[in-house]
Design a protein that fits this description.
5 helices
Length: 121
Amino acid sequence: MSITVVIADDHHLVREAIRSLLSRHADINVLGEAANGDEAIALVKAHAPDVLLIDLAMPKMNGIEAVTQIVDGDPAQKVLAISSHTSQKWVIRALRAGVRGYVLKTETADNLGAAVRTVNK
């Protein structure tokens, strides 16, 4: 059975790269992409993905705010944060917002796929 994912990142090239990396995993299917928190919320409502993969620093509504709204509305929604922020402060903020995992953008495709699977459990 396939794990469905929505990707939210404000950089188009990063979204394309993540989609490409995840496509290497036969058990992961990307349903859509969002460029900001507002779009992420709309896509999660429209597609009900197994996992939301979301960047924390985005314009309009950042990932922390979007995750808070999404998880408040559906506590069962599984969220994996992806970020270039390595400080403990960011990790703690993300966990408090409701993410179930945190992956640095420096990780490999295999580690990203493993993180999606782990968060989906």
